[in-house]
Specification:
This protein has 695 residues and is α+β, with helices and mostly antiparallel strands. The protein contains 11 helices and 42 strands.
Length: 695
């Protein structure tokens, strides 16, 4: 049994502070092993019931065809050859010898990297820069003293111009960096605990951002420093590049609070400094998730992803004037990723979603874009989410697409126009899978809180689902604003969700307002508002789903999640106690002042203000009514485990009943370990009960 604070409250205080012992007693010996065995057996029953879920495809060396094999219902492996010109297929005795695997991407698929690596020696080898005692030396001759600011130092990092006439050094402050401390209670190699410390800046902390300074080889020329007003309150400077003419130095500037993202150019000869691109927003720009930059024609043109029109789209920017040459994509859909760019042919391959109005807006599709006139050619079309692999020649690609309720289909398509050449295989029917008791996940759509957007989610039933019974409902939540998290592609087994459902629950998963990939307005509900977690949309969706699936007992709703999902889980019990009756929160960032700097300033802005406190679970802890289980790894180096311990302390101070399992020696996400997955199920079974016969 697990002991709650109502029956057991004890603290052991030692010199180093307060230690919370696991509030858990032993269950039946070997229960976790039994749980794992049961899970494995469940997965094994489903294995192999759907044939050809993944189809190996091999391309002929001359590019004329493909060879592939699939499994027949008899269990026999059949090899087949497809002629790409005629579309004719021929059965083979075995795998051909003259074949090769395809490519993930036909061309350059990554944003630009710096044109030069840090190197003390100039490209022509005649000069060398060194830093000694915070003084700058060129070929052992001092050319510059310490930075004028007393708290600044030179970094031992040098970026030379291509012609060896100029170089860049970086100066930075030396503010103390916050550290967090861990006690590893049970190290494997000794009896006594060990102390660990890591650097861990938190929201509002001062940062030591390296600032570039341009030096001329001729020491008589003054160094060019970046104007402070141009990079006021920097969070990060990145992607430093010299242009080929060695006169222009370019980098990206990200402002604290993520309200500004700029491409800045410094003319090393004249000292003129300007923002070529100035992306700004009153709330936030999701730089790390929705951004992309690639320079073309040596920087005369720039490919740039932006939500400036409300949707994430690709723009072609004049690299000299900063003016928009053309908006390459547009509409109420988003570019998820730039997969590849071929500068010579002026073609880009994009991953997009929301393009087809009659499909789930989160389904991933692929498109070819002409950079000269913006013509967009959709390369995929099947009603599902897609993954593609190109032929070695990049003239064709394999399109594997599926849906959470539809097994995979494999197609060969032509890159030039997206035309389907052939269907290689469709996975076998679901009949054999149904014989195991497997239940098809059900897609469900309901309107959001203001009726403006459709909210998409999935309903998972237990494998022994009985329509004559009522089931408690469990929501698996991760409302992290950086993405969308409801599964879209085919799987017969959905890990912890399937485990939970088969334990006697109906499980739901959905993406509410405040998450990504549905446009800026949808996403920015999260701004200074993480405690919202889309709950008004979730309540409405679950309520509407309960009308369609009457076996969902809406008087018994639980919720669980880890990390940001752990934060949301506790927030659900605190802010919607009439709806959510029980929750399991693993490694939650319960107070955004306690968590890592970038993630929290991205959504909660900077400087730290009263809105941080208003969004903190600690602020609302006295509102707890439902049943709560908290779990955390004592060595969590992603989310400071003190965030959970402070919640435990606040709950004790408020005299609230709860359950708590800290795990020695483990880190982030320990809630998904076998032992804690079992404890999670047992907790919900105790709190919410199991299936009941309908009256």
């Amino acid at each position: 049994m697990i002991l709650s604070t109502s029956s057991l409250r004890f603290l052991h205080t030692i010199t180093f502070g307060v230690i919370f012992f696991p509030l858990v007693a032993k269950s039946e010996h070997g229960a976790t092993a039994t749980f794992e065995k049961t899970t494995q057996e469940s997965r094994k029953r489903l294995s192999g019931k759907i044939l050809n879920e993944s189809l190996p495809v091999f391309w002929s060396e001359d590019g004329s065809g493909v060879a592939f094999h699939f499994e027949a219902s008899t269990g026999k492996r059949i090899w087949r050859h497809l002629n790409l010109t005629s579309g004719k297929t021929t059965d083979l005795d075995s795998k051909p010898k003259d074949v090769a695997k395809g490519n993930d991407s036909p061309w350059e698929s990554k944003p630009d990297k710096p044109l030069t690596k840090p190197n003390r020696k100039s490209p022509n080898g005649s000069h060398e820069v060194t830093i000694r005692d915070n003084h700058v030396y060129l070929n052992d001759t001092e050319i510059h003293g310490p930075p004028p600011e007393d708290d600044r130092i030179w970094e031992d990092r040098v970026l030379w111009s291509p012609d060896s006439t100029r170089f860049v050094l970086f100066k930075k402050s030396t503010h103390p960096i916050r550290r967090i401390h861990f006690v590893e209670s049970s190290p494997e190699d000794q009896i006594q605990p060990e102390h660990q410390t890591i650097e861990y800046p938190k929201p509002g902390d001062e940062l030591n951002i390296p600032i570039p300074v341009i030096f001329h080889k001729n020491s008589s020329n003054a160094a060019v420093d970046v104007r402070k007003k141009l990079i006021n309150h920097p969070f990060q400077l990145r992607n430093f590049q010299w242009r080929a003419d060695s006169e222009r130095f370019v980098f990206e500037f990200i402002e604290r609070g993520f309200g500004s993202h700029q491409v800045i150019e410094i003319n090393a000869r004249t000292g003129v400094q300007r923002a070529i691109i100035n992306e700004s927003d009153e709330k936030f720009i999701y730089v790390y998730g929705n951004g992309f930059r690639k320079d073309l024609k040596g920087g005369d043109e720039i490919l740039w992803l932006s939500e400036r029109d409300g949707w994430n789209h690709l723009y072609l920017i004049d690299g000299i004037s900063g003016e928009v040459i053309r908006q390459l994509t547009s509409g109420e859909w988003v570019v998820r990723k730039v997969i590849a760019v071929h500068e010579e042919s002026r073609i880009a391959i994009l991953q997009v979603s929301g393009f087809y109005e009659d499909q789930d807006p989160y389904h991933l599709h692929y498109a070819k874009l002409n950079l000269d006139h913006g013509k967009l050619t959709l390369l995929t079309e099947g009603d599902g989410t897609h993954d593609i692999t190109f032929s070695p020649s990049s003239n064709y690609f394999v399109d594997r697409w599926s849906r959470i309720d539809h097994p995979p289909v494999h197609e060969i398509r032509r890159l030039s126009d997206g035309k389907r050449i052939a269907v290689l295989s469709k996975s076998s029917s679901l009949g054999d899978l149904f014989t195991t008791g497997w239940q098809r996940p059900e897609r469900f759509v309901a309107k959001c809180r203001n009726e403006e957007y459709d909210i998409h989610g999935v309903i998972f039933r237990p494998h022994d689902f009985d329509p004559a019974k009522n089931y408690p409902v469990i929501e698996s939540i991760y409302a992290g604003p950086h993405g969308s998290f409801t599964p879209k592609s085919w799987r017969s087994w959905h890990g912890g969700i399937s485990e939970m459902a088969n334990a006697g629950f109906i499980v739901v998963k959905l993406d509410g307002l405040g998450t990504n990939h549905r446009g800026k307005e949808f996403h920015q509900v999260a701004y200074k508002n993480l405690i919202d977690s889309g709950f008004p949309d979730r309540r409405r969706w679950i309520t509407e789903a309960g009308k369609k699936v009457p076996q969902m007992d809406l008087s018994r709703i639980g919720i669980y999640g880890g990390s940001a999902g752990g934060q949301s889980t506790l927030a659900a019990l605190l802010t919607h106690p009439d709806f959510y009756k029980a929750g399991v929160a693993d490694c939650g960032c319960h107070d955004n002042r306690m968590d890592k700097i970038w993630w929290n300033e991205q959504w909660m802005d900077w400087p730290v203000g009263d809105h941080y406190e208003a969004n903190s679970n600690l602020t609302h802890i006295d509102k707890l009514e439902g049943d709560l289980l908290l779990t955390v790894g004592e060595l969590d180096k992603n989310v400071d485990p003190s965030s959970t311990y402070q919640v435990v302390n606040a709950l004790i101070q408020a005299d609230k009943d709860f359950e708590f399992i800290p795990v020695p020696g483990k880190g982030h996400g320990i809630g998904e370990s076998p032992h804690l997955r079992r404890k999670r199920i047992e907790f919900f079974q105790r709190s919410l009960g199991g299936p009941t016969t309908q009256k």
